[in-house]
């Protein structure tokens, strides 16, 4: 299924990442648009988001993680199967919460709608996109996600991939954070994992994260600490997976583009198979490639190319 995102281009991606970064700072003054609605109060499974009208299009911009509550929302590793597909439970609930406020503005709007965000915001955005595609099947709804955690099963991703784009910065760790990928990385434990105490498995994963610690900045330290806090929940999920629990969510969703600021290429040349992200990224700088400003710099380095209609 080809990429059918309306107006897809490097310029569109650059605008989307700039809006996603603006959401972190609650500062859209660099854009000549109209703020239709904003929810600046974050809660557990209730993210900050903005509904913004710009250049005749409507943007639903989801903020990434800033607070401890945001990070706790990302740690809901259970899967929820719905009539629309199987989703990361935390991101499904967060999407429902956001759309309970935002959907009416999308319903009232006649033009093209873009949903975007970075990190937590990018993990929620594709779920919102699937829900809205079904709620408003005749509307032009598109999604541009930057550095998300995997959030939907492969069948659902394929069904809705025409207007869904995921951008991954080089070897960013976060888009590889799924239970099957964790298991694939540590499969050498398979003969004994069912006999190992949970604390021992937690220790293995903590040592894996410690591998990255010396190379991270103060900003990246927030991600490091959040991931470390999530390890017990992740271990529970991995143990369940080894005992036969079904885990359908593994890969980034939609059309996936892997970019590299050191080797910028036209976006059409950056598309990769989602299944290539089949284990945890073990690149030493994997955490330093995730922050929003790092993504912004990498996206802004993409050479301009033609616009798709």
Query: In sequence order, what are the helices and strands, one letter per element?
Result: HEEEHEEHEHEHEHHHEEH
Count of individual beta strands: 10
The level 1 CATH classification is Alpha Beta
The pLDDT mean sits at 91
Assign the structural class, choosing from mainly alpha, mainly beta, alpha/beta, alpha+beta, or little secondary structure: alpha/beta
Q: Give Rg in angstroms.
A: 18 Å
Beta fraction of the residues?
15-25%
CATH superfamily: Alpha/Beta hydrolase fold, catalytic domain
Write up this protein.
The chain has helices spanning about 10-25, 70-75, 90-110, 120-135, 155-160, 180-185, 200-215, 220-240, 290-300, and strands at about 35-40, 50-55, 55-60, 80, 85-90, 115-120, 140-145, 165-170, 255-260, 270. Strand 2 (about 50-55) and strand 3 (about 55-60) form a beta hairpin. About 45% of the residues are buried. The strands form two sheets. It has an eight-stranded mixed beta sheet with strand order 1-2-3-6-7-8-9-10, sandwiched between helices. The protein has a two-stranded antiparallel ribbon with strand order 4-5. The protein has one domain: Rossmann fold, CATH 3.40.50. Helices cover about 40% and strands about 15% of the residues. By secondary structure, it is an alpha/beta fold.
């Amino acid at each position: 299924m080809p990429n059918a995102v309306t107006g897809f281009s490097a310029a569109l991606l650059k605008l989307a990442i700039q809006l996603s970064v603006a959401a972190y700072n609650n500062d859209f003054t660099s854009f000549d648009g109209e703020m239709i609605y904003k929810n600046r109060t974050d809660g557990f499974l209730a993210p900050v988001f903005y509904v913004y009208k710009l250049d005749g299009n409507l943007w639903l911009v989801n903020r990434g993680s800033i607070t401890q509550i945001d990070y706790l929302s990302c740690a809901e590793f259970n899967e929820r199967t719905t009539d629309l597909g199987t989703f990361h439970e935390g991101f499904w609930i967060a999407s429902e919460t956001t759309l309970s406020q935002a959907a009416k503005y999308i319903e009232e709007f006649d033009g093209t709608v873009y949903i975007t965000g970075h990190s937590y915001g990018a993990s929620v955005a594709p779920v919102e996109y699937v829900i809205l595609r079904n709620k408003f099947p005749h509307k032009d709804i598109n999604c541009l996600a930057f550095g998300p955690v995997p959030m939907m099963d492969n069948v659902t991703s394929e069904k809705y991939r025409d207007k869904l784009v995921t951008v991954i910065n080089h070897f960013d760790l976060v888009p590889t954070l799924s239970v099957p990928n964790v298991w694939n990385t540590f499969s050498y434990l398979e003969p004994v994992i069912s006999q190992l105490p949970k604390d021992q498995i937690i220790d293995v994963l903590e040592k894996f994260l410690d591998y990255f610690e010396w190379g991270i900045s103060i900003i990246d330290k927030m991600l490091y600490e959040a991931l470390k806090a999530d390890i017990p929940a992740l271990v529970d999920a991995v143990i369940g997976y080894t005992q036969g629990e079904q885990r359908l969510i593994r890969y980034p969703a939609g059309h996936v583009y892997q970019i590299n600021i050191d080797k910028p290429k036209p976006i059409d040349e950056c598309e990769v198979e989602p299944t290539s992200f089949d284990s945890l990224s073990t690149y030493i700088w994997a955490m330093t490639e995730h922050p929003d400003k790092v993504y912004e710099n990498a996206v802004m380095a993409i050479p301009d190319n033609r616009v798709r209609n």
